[in-house]
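Late entry, written up from scratch paper. The run itself happened at the end of the previous shift, but nothing got recorded in the book at the time, so transcribing now.
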Amino acid sequence: MDILIVGIISYVMGSIPFGLVLTKIFLKKDIREIGSGNIGATNALRTGNKIIGYTTLIFDILKAIIPVIYVKIYFPELVYVSSLCAFLGHVFPIWLKFKGGKGVATYLGILFALNIYFSLIFIISWFVTFGLSRYSSLASLVASISIPIYLLLSSQFNQVFFFTIMFILIFFTHRENIKRLKNKEETKTKIY
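Output as recorded:
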């Protein structure tokens, strides 16, 4: 019974579409009709309102941190269930016909909750890649693969499977970006 409750609550929290909610309230716009049509923080930045973009980023991180830390404290054996369900909630929200964001900010929230060092590896990898390329999508992919690589190199094999699955999911959500990167058609992102 616990696994079902943890899974549902984590999914519901992860599925709150903050990018959509914030742009609707403060800009009177539908984020799904802007830029890539995605509800995540990168597309929220494309509204031209940096405050909306960064607020979306923070909330998308927090909606994973809150359930995962709670589960980590009270149901530690279910922490990966909570993490996965929060991520899937963001990517496939029931309220938006299962068309959500790409999951990167939510994944960062999961990393913060599970292990602060993982989140630092992710952030450093993201900023180095972004600084060199100016592609948010490429930075997200490199940062996501950096965690299982780090775990393999440091012989922490018991966690490699979960983080490899997370990378595969992020690779899946970025499949259109990958095509555009290959064809040199991807849009560079301004983060400030």
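The CA atoms of residues 10 and 82 lie 5 Å apart.
(Scratch paper discarded after transcription.)
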